[in-house]
Design goal:
The protein has one domain: Alpha-Beta Barrel (Multidrug-efflux Transporter 1 Regulator Bmrr, Chain A), CATH 3.20.80.10. About 25% of the residues lie in helices and about 30% in strands. It is built from three helices and ten strands. It is globular and about 50 Å long. The relative contact order is 0.20.
Amino acid sequence: MEKKSLFISFVCRFLASLVLFSGSKAIESPQFTVIQSYSNMEIRLYKESSWMSALERGGTSFENSTKQGFHRLYQYIHGANLNSSQLAMTAPVLTTISTRESNYIVRLYLPNGAIPRPNPELNLGLDRWRSHCLAVRKFSGIAKDGSVEKEMEALRISLEKIWNESSGVVVENRFYTIAQYSAPFQVSGRVNEVWMNVSGLTGKGCLPLNKGQF
């Protein structure tokens, strides 16, 4: 009974945090510039950014791994850090999915400023991303196990139509990322994106990935 109560309490706090996604303009997000726009996707150049990450190695599914990883990140921003600091919720929540292994990484954006170290038992890591480019496709509805791979595949096909092998553009296919901006209980108007890293766009600043950008 105690475990059930703790789980219900966490779910309520989880929903309370993410409701900010749909109703507050104060939520901070990583900064980017759209450098190319198409009917069903766009290419963005993101500035340098920092993310706290939770690795779910051998995860059973996108949905479960996202919930479990976010649970640890939630604790971190609500005081489970060496400064006992309360940090603001940001958007989006990212889940990076490996296409070769059953590994998932859930991430939360950290705005500029002092970043407190997480408590060791949370097993979180800090990822610092340099400026890089992303191909982005927006989609609505709830991001589920059965839909995220289809959205990634649709983005991949769109990229193949505009760039061939001789273009010099490299699309990273070892992993892709689902970005969720909406509260989980929001029924309509949900905002999700699928991200794929791209490099090699001449003059656009699209640099190759750092080793730690998975």
